[in-house]
Specification:
- The chain has 114 residues and is mainly α.
- It has a domain of 30 residues.
- The protein has four helices and no strands.
- The radius of gyration is 19 Å and the shape is extended.
Length: 114
């Protein structure tokens, strides 16, 4: 990484204390709901989840399949800076699709856009 390349750095967010507390409450409630509805995948940016456990599962499943004489394929995508490219409108539509509707969806829309 070249330190002089500004594209390697993310902007600093200086949220108020209220906003930080609000985000934590929303994240906790949203995660509980998505866990309850079993919407989220098993790995990735979750509590008690790591790249090590995801790598172990991938290797274990691959080797088990190969030992069973099955064909194994994979597609890997580099999602570098993916969260910087999230479109708010599409995110809100996805939340609506997964049952985050009504007042909660409007609250998140207001937070994201205002």
């Amino acid at each position: 990484m070249v330190k002089s390349n500004i594209s390697h750095y993310r902007p600093i967010s200086s949220l108020t204390l209220f906003s930080k507390i609000f985000e934590q409450i929303i994240i906790t409630r949203l995660t509980q709901y998505l866990d309850y509805t079993q919407t989220l995948v098993e790995f990735g940016f979750r509590n008690k989840s790591s790249t090590d456990s995801a790598t172990y599962k991938l290797l274990n499943d691959t080797l088990t399949s190969l030992n069973s004489k099955l064909i194994v394929g994979g597609i890997f995508c580099d999602l570098q800076k993916a969260f910087d490219c999230v479109n708010d409108d599409i995110l809100l539509l996805k939340l609506n699709f997964y049952g985050i509707i009504g007042l909660v969806n409007k609250l998140l829309e207001s937070y994201l856009k205002n």
